[in-house]
Amino acid sequence: MTRHEVQHQLGKKFHAYLTAGDWEGIRSLLTDDASWTLPGDNTISGTAVGAEAVVERAKKIASYGLDFELLHILVSRENMALSLHNTARRGDVRLDEHLSTVCRLRDNKIANIETYLSDVPGMNAFFV
After folding, report:
1. What are the pLDDT digits (tens) for 44-91?
2. CA 25 to CA 71: how far, in whole Å?
3. Cβ atoms within 10 Å of 54's Cβ, excluding its own
4. What is the pLDDT of residue 10?
5. CATH number of the domain at 3-126, please?
6. What is the spatial distance between Cα 31 and Cα 107, in angstroms, rounded to a whole number?
7. Which residues, including other chains, have CB under 8 Å from residue 47's CB and lie 6 or more apart?
8. For 101-117, what is the mean pLDDT?
9. Where is the SnoaL-like domain positioned along the sequence (predicted)?
10. Edge-to-edge strands, sheet with 30-38
């Protein structure tokens, strides 16, 4: 398998495991020291450090009932990113955001995740 095929498969697996709530699957894709940084000032913002904390972050996000629509898997020379359209509704509050989840890889695993959002104020209002 080529490097880009490995990157693409990691992206597909991450999205599939997230949408299925397969937390052990997500854990299997991460280095032990993985981290995930999200912008904003809300319950999911900041940096989760360590594979278990990253899995807990994924669980918390999913617990809000998001639809994680995968638009594209993007690859660079060494890393990959997911282009997503996330939507959800909680009472009268609606989430509708586009984002890029950039994954830096090490030894064919995800070592660092940084998420870039189109609507940080909307995220802050939704994830309270």
Report:
1. 999 999 999 999 999 999 999 999 999 999 999 999 999 999 999 999
2. 21
3. 24
4. 97
5. 3.10.450.50
6. 9
7. 35, 36, 37, 38
8. 97
9. 13-112
10. 46-49, 30-38, 109-117, 93-106, 80-90, 67-75
